[in-house]
C-alpha cells in the first residue's frame, strides 16, 4: 500500500514537472536556434578568414611597396653619391684647367715678348729652317745696299710733296664746308711704312690720316671693346662712336631708356632735346635711326668734300687728281702730264678721347682687319704710337742699327714671294709686329749692324712660331711693358691681348695658304737675294768674314 501510494505520488510529481505551463515554449526550439547560430558562426568565420586574407594581402603589398621604396631610395642615394663624386671630379678638373689656363696666360704675359733669351726654344721651333741656309753677311750687306737703299732714296722728297699738297687740299675742303653743319677737319698726319722708313716696294704710297670732329654743339662719345661692356670675340679691336650733345650726360638719362607717359616730362631734358629728328642725325653721318657714326656715310661725305675742294684749287696745279681704287674711298692718285703718277691715301679718323689712338673707317690696300661687323663698328689704329715707339727705341740702339734693315729685307722677300705664288693672309703689318716684339725683348747691343743675319733669323723663327701656334699678339694691346714716355692709354695696356691671327683660326684655307707661302719664301730666300745682289769677289767676302 505505501509503495503504491509512493508510485502514485511520483507519477503526479513527474506530470506536474513536465507540464508545459511551467516552462516557456521557446525552450522547445533550442535545437533549431543552435543550428542557426552555428551556421552564422561559420559564415562569420568565413568572412573573418576572407578579411584576414585581404589584410594579409594588403600587408604583403605594403611590404613590397616599402621594399621598392627602400630600393629606390638606395638607388637615389647611390646616384646622389655618384653625382657628388662626379661633380667633385668635374669641379676638380675645372679648377685644374683654370689653374693651367691662368698659368699659361701669366706665362705668356710675362714671357710672350721674352724671345731673345730663349734661343733653345727657337732652335726647336725653327723646324722650317732645316736645310735652309741664309746668305752670309757680305751677301746680305750687298743686297741691302744695292736693292733696298737704291730704291728708297727718293721717299723723303715724295713725302714732302704729298704732305704739302694734302695740307692745301684740306684747307680748301674747310673752305667749301659749312662750318655750322659739316664735320670739322683737322690737320693730317703721316703714318705707316713710308713715315717709319721701311717701305721697299714700289709704287710708294703715303698713308695720311685726317682727324675730324662734329660741329658744335655736338661731340663724339667713343666706346671700345675693352671699356667694360662685353663685346663678342669677332668685335674685339673695334669700337663705336656715338654722336651726342656736348652737355649730355655720358651715361645717358633714364628718359632715353624708359618710355614716359604722355603727361610726364623729364625735368633734365625737354621734349625737343630728347627726341632728335632722324634727318638731323643722318646729316651728322649717323646710321639710320641711331646716334652711331656710320663709316660708310663718313667716306661718302669725305669723297664729296674732297671733290669740291679739288675743284676749287685745281687751277693752281698742273696735274690731275682722281680716286684710284673703288674699294678704297680715300685712295687718291696724282697724274702728271709726263705720265708719272703718285698715289697716296687720305683716310678720315676719329680721335679716341685725348690720346693718339684713332678709330679708322677702313684700312686701304690691307687685309689687316677682317670685315667690320657693321658700318657702325670702327677699328682702332695705333699707328701713331707705333711710329713713336720705333723712334724712341732707335735712340737707344747702336749707330746704323739693323732693325729697320731686317724689316725691309723681310718685307721685300715676302712681297717677291707673293708676286710668284699669289697673295696670302700674311701682311707687312704682321712683319712689323714681329719686329716690335723683338725690339722690346732683345738688348740694344744685339741690333748692331754686324748682327743683321742673326736678327733676321730671329724674326723668321719668331714668325714661324706664331704661325705654328696661330697666335701673333698685337704689340700694344695687353702689353704692360710699354714705355711711359709714350703716354699710351692704360686701358689698352690692361686689356686682354689681341691675337692678330685669330681670323685665320676658322679660315683654314687662308691659314694653309699663309703657311705655305712662308715656307716657300724660306726655301727661295737665297735664290731671291742672290738674284738681286751684285756679284761680290771671293777675296772681299773672305775679308769680311775674317773681320
Which features would summarize this protein structure in a list?
MAB21L/cGLR; Poly(a)-polymerase, middle domain; disordered C terminus; alpha+beta; glycoprotein; 10 strands; Beta Polymerase, domain 2; 547 residues; ITPRIP-like
Write structural notes for this entry.
Strands 1, 2, 3, 4, 5, 6, 7, 8, 9 and 10 form a ten-stranded mixed beta sheet that branches. A hairpin with a 6-residue loop joins strand 8 and strand 9. By secondary structure, this protein is of the alpha+beta class. Among the domains are: 170 residues, Poly(a)-polymerase, middle domain (Orthogonal Bundle); 198 residues, 2-Layer Sandwich (Beta Polymerase, domain 2), CATH 3.30.460. The C terminus is likely disordered. The N and C termini lie far apart (187 Å).
CATH architecture of the domain at 151-248 and 282-381: 2-Layer Sandwich
Largest sheet: 10 strands, mixed
The low-confidence parts are 25-31, 108-125, 256-260, 267-277, 536-547
- What is the CA–CA distance across the termini? 187 Å
Q: What is Rg?
A: 47 Å
**What percent of residues are in strands?**
5-15%
Query: In CATH terms, what is the fold-level topology of the domain at 151-248 and 282-381?
Result: Beta Polymerase, domain 2
Mean pLDDT: 79
Order of helices and strands, N to C? HHHHHEEHEEEHHHEEEEEHHHHHHHH
Amino acid at each position: 500500500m505505501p509503495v503504491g501510494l509512493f508510485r502514485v505520488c511520483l507519477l503526479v510529481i513527474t506530470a506536474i514537472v513536465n507540464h508545459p505551463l511551467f516552462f516557456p515554449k521557446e525552450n522547445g526550439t533550442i535545437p533549431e536556434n543552435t543550428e542557426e547560430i552555428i551556421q552564422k558562426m561559420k559564415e562569420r568565420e568565413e568572412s573573418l578568414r576572407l578579411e584576414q586574407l585581404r589584410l594579409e594581402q594588403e600587408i604583403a603589398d605594403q611590404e613590397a611597396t616599402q621594399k621598392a621604396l627602400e630600393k629606390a631610395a638606395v638607388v637615389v642615394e647611390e646616384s646622389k653619391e655618384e653625382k657628388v663624386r662626379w661633380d667633385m671630379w668635374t669641379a676638380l678638373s675645372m679648377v685644374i684647367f683654370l689653374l693651367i689656363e691662368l698659368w699659361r696666360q701669366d706665362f705668356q704675359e710675362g714671357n710672350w715678348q721674352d724671345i731673345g733669351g730663349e734661343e733653345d726654344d727657337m732652335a726647336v721651333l725653327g723646324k722650317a729652317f732645316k736645310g735652309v741656309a741664309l746668305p752670309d753677311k757680305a751677301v746680305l750687306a750687298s743686297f741691302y745696299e744695292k736693292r733696298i737703299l737704291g730704291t728708297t732714296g727718293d721717299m723723303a722728297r715724295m713725302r714732302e710733296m704729298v704732305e704739302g699738297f694734302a695740307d692745301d687740299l684740306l684747307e680748301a675742303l674747310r673752305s667749301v664746308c659749312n662750318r655750322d653743319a659739316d664735320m670739322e677737319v683737322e690737320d693730317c698726319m703721316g703714318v705707316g711704312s713710308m713715315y717709319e722708313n721701311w717701305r721697299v716696294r714700289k709704287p710708294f704710297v703715303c698713308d695720311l690720316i685726317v682727324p675730324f670732329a662734329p660741329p658744335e654743339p655736338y661731340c663724339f662719345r667713343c666706346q671700345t671693346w675693352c671699356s667694360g661692356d662685353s663685346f663678342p670675340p669677332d668685335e674685339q679691336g673695334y669700337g663705336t662712336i656715338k654722336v651726342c650733345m656736348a652737355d649730355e650726360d655720358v651715361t645717358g638719362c633714364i628718359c632715353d631708356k624708359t618710355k614716359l607717359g604722355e603727361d610726364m616730362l623729364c625735368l633734365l631734358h625737354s621734349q625737343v632735346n630728347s627726341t632728335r629728328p632722324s634727318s638731323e642725325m643722318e646729316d651728322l653721318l649717323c646710321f639710320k635711326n641711331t646716334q652711331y657714326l656710320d663709316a660708310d656715310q663718313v667716306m661718302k661725305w669725305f669723297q664729296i668734300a674732297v671733290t669740291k675742294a679739288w675743284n676749287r684749287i685745281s687751277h693752281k696745279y698742273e696735274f690731275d687728281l682722281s680716286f684710284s681704287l673703288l674699294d678704297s674711298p680715300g685712295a687718291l692718285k696724282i697724274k702728271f702730264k709726263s705720265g708719272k703718277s703718285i698715289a697716296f691715301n687720305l683716310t678720315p679718323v676719329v680721335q679716341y678721347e685725348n690720346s693718339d689712338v684713332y678709330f679708322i673707317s677702313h684700312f686701304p690696300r690691307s687685309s689687316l682687319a677682317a670685315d667690320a661687323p657693321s658700318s657702325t663698328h670702327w677699328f682702332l689704329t695705333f699707328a701713331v704710337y707705333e711710329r713713336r715707339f720705333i723712334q724712341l727705341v732707335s735712340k737707344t740702339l747702336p749707330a746704323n742699327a739693323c732693325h729697320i734693315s731686317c724689316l725691309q729685307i723681310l718685307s721685300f722677300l715676302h712681297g717677291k714671294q707673293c708676286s710668284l705664288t699669289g697673295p696670302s693672309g700674311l701682311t707687312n703689318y704682321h712683319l712689323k709686329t714681329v719686329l716690335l716684339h723683338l725690339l722690346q725683348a732683345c738688348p740694344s747691343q744685339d741690333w748692331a749692324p754686324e748682327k743683321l743675319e742673326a736678327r733676321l733669323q730671329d724674326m723668321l723663327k719668331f714668325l714661324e712660331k706664331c704661325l705654328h701656334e696661330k697666335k701673333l699678339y698685337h704689340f700694344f694691346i695687353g702689353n704692360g711693358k710699354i714705355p711711359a714716355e709714350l703716354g699710351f692709354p692704360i686701358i689698352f695696356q690692361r686689356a686682354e691681348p689681341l691675337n692678330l691671327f685669330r681670323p685665320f683660326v676658322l679660315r683654314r684655307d687662308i691659314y694653309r695658304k699663309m703657311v705655305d707661302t712662308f715656307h716657300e719664301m724660306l726655301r727661295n730666300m737665297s735664290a731671291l737675294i742672290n738674284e738681286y745682289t751684285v756679284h761680290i769677289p771671293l777675296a772681299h767676302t773672305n775679308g769680311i768674314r775674317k773681320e
